[in-house]
Specification:
The complex is a heterodimer of chains A (112) and B (116). Chain A is mainly beta and 112 residues long. Chain A contains no helices and eleven strands. The chains are: A mainly beta (112), B mainly beta (116).
Chain lengths: 112, 116
């Protein structure tokens, strides 16, 4: 299975900081790149997603930056809050109703 | 919109029994659903792809006779863990694709299975 490599594994930032989570992929056929947020004991929730025809997408405090040539994409969380403390997963998939390939996740802690 | 439910949220059973987990798309029709398994502090592991009206496609290493998947309608997929053993204890999560071809996947809240 094609991999999606996610880093860092864990991240601690102060309230108001801008955590950045990075992902790199190998399969150039991937054309859909979502980010999910998961709280303990809950299912993942879709945060934001991007397709390769744009380099950046912003929704509220969440921004995806996408670098097609480098095969990398990242999530930025502006003005982070303690309530953002969760595990974040990047993922990728190809065209159609295909399964997502997930990164290993990043545990984010935002401290007041 | 795009709500996916799972039932039950938690189940405890004895070794050797079978457990059925339901996954429903509440406000949309899903021709494709996926079943994942997640161990503590780990990522999601795809178990199988469930397509309405056809047999599920299982990932390598997943026993199809142990994890029975039925996608009987456009809003319901079920996962039955047969003859459960303690090693089957895990967090099982389903997802459903909102719009055909766009691959926006929405996840259920998960089911915590504990096999004693």
């Amino acid at each position: 299975q094609q991999q999606v490599k996610q880093s860092p594994q864990s991240l601690i930032v102060q309230k108001g900081g801008i955590p950045i989570i990075n992902c790199a992929y190998e399969n150039t056929a991937f054309d859909y790149f979502p980010w999910y947020q998961q709280f303990p004991g809950k299912g993942p929730a879709l945060l934001i997603a991007i397709r390769p025809d744009v380099s950046e997408k912003k929704e509220g405090r969440f921004t995806i930056s996408f670098n097609k040539s480098a095969k990398q994409f990242s999530l930025h969380i502006m003005d982070s809050q303690p309530g953002d403390s969760a595990t974040y997963f990047c993922a990728a998939s190809t065209v159609g109703n295909t399964p997502l390939v997930f990164g290993k996740g990043t545990r984010l802690s935002v401290i007041a | 919109g795009a709500v996916v439910s799972q039932h039950p949220s938690r189940v405890i059973c004895k070794s050797g029994t079978s457990v059925k987990i339901e996954c429903r798309s509440l406000d949309f029709q899903a021709t494709t659903m996926f079943w994942y398994r997640q161990f503590p502090k780990q990522s999601l592991m795809l178990m199988a792809t469930s397509n309405e009206g056809s047999k599920a496609t299982y990932e390598q290493g997943v026993e199809k006779d142990k994890f029975l998947i039925n996608h009987a309608s456009l809003t319901l997929s079920t996962l039955t863990v047969t003859s459960a053993h303690p090693e089957d204890s895990s967090f099982y999560i389903c997802s459903a694709i909102l719009r055909r071809g766009y691959n926006e996947q929405f996840f259920g809240p998960g089911t915590r299975l504990t096999v004693l």
